[in-house]
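Supplementary Note 3. Input sequence used for the single-chain structure prediction.
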Amino acid sequence: MTHLPGSVHGEAWFVVLPDHAAALAVSHTPALAGLRRIDHGPGRPWLLGQWRDGAITLAEAGPLRVALIGYCSMTEAELTAAIRPLRTVHDVDRLLPQLSGTFHLVAADPDGVRVQGTLSGTRRVFRARAGHHHLAASRSDVLARVLGTGIDDRQIAVRLLSPAAPHPLQGQSVWSDVQAVPEDAYLHLRAGRPATTTTCWRPPEAGLSLSEGAPRLRAALSAAVAAAVRGGGARSCDLSGGLDSTPVCFLAARLADRLTTFTFPAAGAADDDPYWVKTALAALPDVEAVFVPEEEAPLPFAGVSTPGTVLDEPHLGLEDRALLLDVTRRLPHHSAGLHLTGHGGDEVLECMLSYLHDLAHTRPRVAWAHLRGYRARHRWPLRDSLAALADQRSYRQWLAAALPHLTEPPPRPTPAEHLGWGQAPRLPSWATARAADAVRSVAEESPWTPLAARRGQHSTLEAVRFSGRATRLDGWLMADNGLPMATPLLDDRVVEACLAVRPHERTTPWHYKPLMTEAMHGLLPHELLRRTTKGGGGAEELEYEGLRRYRDELLALTEDSRLAARGLIDAVALRRMCASSFMPGLSPHMLALTLACEAWLRDVEFAAGRRDHV
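The predicted structure, written as discrete structure tokens, is reproduced below.
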């Protein structure tokens, strides 16, 4: 197998071509030469890329051919039987509810090719036009190399936004002339005709009670874990003691030939994760437990200036890269073939608190009771809380009001950021006016339609997508270092099962993740289901400690800044901030976003230099 220089060689990636003789010329471009290949027919390439043996489940029946790339619940024989009644790629809509796992789906019929990823963005699809033909790929940088295009500076500016770029700014391709396909849609490629994008999924009505939704979540999560464990062998799983990774561990332990759990030390003295880990392991006697000693656990921001895996966009979790790499260093010694995590649990199991705004207009008594609980927990002033609930601005109006203030200091925390459309985005103080203009330019070209009509559902979907996209990059990084990763809580069927439950029943101020505790009755020990806290309370203190300890590495990233060369930041101002004692008010997250973009630009430049010398 030939590896694309600078690419992730541990994770499958591919390019999809329409069934046309002229597409053969595209397959011969230097960016796609020497790759693995599956053809439409003799001499007519369909899939080009790199993947491990067994990474693709391929089936054909009648006029239809389907490839599932990743972890899926069906064998080739089962998939062949499932598609036998289907005639066209549009009929695949009927297949999707039968599938569990995390995978790309590529289907072909005589009229064209359908390509789609996952609802959360853990698997994404990008599109581009090469000559008279449209192509699709799971990596945006591969398409950019086919086209010979470079980085879109405006999209780099968008990734400087804190706490995150709002929809629809987030998730777009950072490469010129390469577009991202929305997670709720599929791309249809047809020879000699323009490619089209078709929405194939809409969020459920969220009308199920907790008791009705819990069995659906239990079945969906069980199937998702089974898809990742399918085939037997050794598996490993994060075990933090929380109600995300712990259920995944218990489900995997029932199916894997051998399971190793992996636990980092507590984030602080007030973190009660260790108690819950100990309780979980007492009920998992047949697993091997790996603990990272506190003195050996990497701090945030360790190694940020070291060149790393070249991803197709900035890794906005750069500050935790050393943690991920530590997992890959320790677990291969335990023969783990796949690492399962609880990533995405916070986003899918509970609704964002903007559900209170929706609830206030449908069930005001329930909304008032919930509001009192959250006010007591977060110390929200009553007047500010009521003002946030009374805000009737549309998503378009909210975004239009936020864009003129990008360069102002972050506003003081208020209930509005929780009960409205989201927290107003801000650029860091070291960003330039050019960066702000670039963000507004992207916004002007983007549709300002929310992901759902209701604020709670929109905000939750936005959070799910952000988590999925970040997890996608984490997974590439881990796979590139020898340990592929699976995230069952972000599988499509799990996302659907959670979103179908009424927001005010899966989210309350009095219970911790009630949907998961209800779903896991009988599978997890009763003691674990009693947990009412979330660990990690000392994470911010660790971030500040990492900033202090690795100050020299941060300063190294400000030297000859690539962001400054593109006119997006003031390097002197950034260097001054990195050299300071990190005054109160500095957000480690905001700094991490800038450093992630700077490090990524250097990684891309370094990889391009290596290719030029091959």
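The chain has four domains: 13-199, 210-349+459-538, 363-449, 540-612. Residues 294 and 479 are 25 Å apart (CA to CA).
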